[in-house]
Amino acid sequence: MHPNARFHLATPDFRDSFGRDRDRIIHSSYFRRLEYKTQVFINHSGDYFRTRLTHSLEASQIARTLAKNLGLDENLSEAIALAHDLGHTPFGHAGGDELDRIMRHCGFSNGFDHNFQSFRVVTKLEKRYKEFDGLNLTFATLEGILKHSYPYEKPFLSDNLKNSFRVEFHPSLEAILVDLSDEIAYISADIDDGIKYGLIGFENLKESALVSQAIEFVEKEEKVMRGDSIFRHRFTSRLITLLVYDILENNQPFVQSSPQCFTYRAKESLPITHTKVMENDIKTLKQILLTHLYRHEEISKKMFMGKRCVRKLYDCFNNEINLLPKDLQERIYKGEKPHRVCADYIASMTDRYAIALYHELGF
User: Fold this and answer.
1) Which end of the chain is more exposed for a tag (fewer CB within 10 A), N or C?
2) Distance CA 137, CA 330 (A)
């Protein structure tokens, strides 16, 4: 299919195809719910913490910047970035991992995959039209959502999806930018949030050459010292700048009249990358964050609570479908498997709604 094509007819209007996708995503109910879904820190712990919504906005801003400077379609990159986390469960990756574990334990080998759930949201679960399910997004936007993470050929994908989206190819360059932007956004934001609330300090990060480079620039070039109240903000800004510049300097602008799908084979290297030095620096920094931040006692306690909440809700709904909303009960009566419907319901919840329902059910 052409990148601009849709699976259902749409009357042309004043927007281009990918700008229209972006608007449909922003106006969706699942996008609004991202405001109260955990990124790393449980949302109700503090109003400052990033959520899935603020993360998606930050990732989309970085993706637009990269796309503009590399001669790619800004609206397509923005649309994919805004949609890439729509399928996330409450309680961050801990909630998704627990839902995946539960489903596999119950004998459903496909488990739960939040990237594929995002695809399900925009093609099935959002209801905006009488004639069909989903948001009727363009092929290129759907491809970018479906192929957000490598390898693209997942065992749970139907043959029809594998053939339609040709998993033997990398997605468009714009989608590849989103994956890079996602990483830049969450690394910088997690450090910022972690330092703000005293869960990690610059002394924990000093083994990272990338962090040291950012600190040195802020102190020597901007004359902002580590004890200054704005140091953290200047550091985060510089960290993002270093990561963005590395991509721009390692890749020449592309010349294309429209986004290109089915151009770069998946068995070949990505056509847009960081430098090898930066890739190694990012790996080192992510390992430091895993050790000192993501496994921090305070975060672990909150995530343990979130996993227990997901587990209990799944057990309740799977054992008593009358606890589900009427429209979800109808899906089961019409032949859908209960475990899939229960997973859809839990994945759609915000943190606060899941916690409130958990307590309402007597836990």
Assistant:
1) C
2) 26
Cis peptide before 151 (omega within 30 of 0): yes
66, 251 Cβ separation under 8 angstroms: no
Report the run of H or E that residue 228 belongs to, with start and end.
none
Residue the block writes with tokens 């139907």: 158
In the numeric block, the tokens 């903000």 are attached to: 233
Please report which confidence band the pLDDT of residue 290 belongs to, taking 50, 70 and 90 as the band edges.
Answer: very high
Helix (H) or strand (E) holding 241: helix 231-250
What is the rounded distance in angstroms from the CA atom of residue 212 to the CA atom of residue 145? 34
3-state SS, one letter per residue, for 28-64: CHHHHHHHHCECCCCHHHCCCCCEHHHHHHHHHHHHH
For 333, counting Cβ atoms within 10 Å of its Cβ (0-12 exposed, 13-18 middle, 19+ buried), the class is exposed
- Going by pLDDT thresholds of 50, 70 and 90, the confidence category of residue 249 is very high
User: Is the pLDDT at 41 greater than 80, yes or no?
Assistant: no
Give the global pTM.
0.95
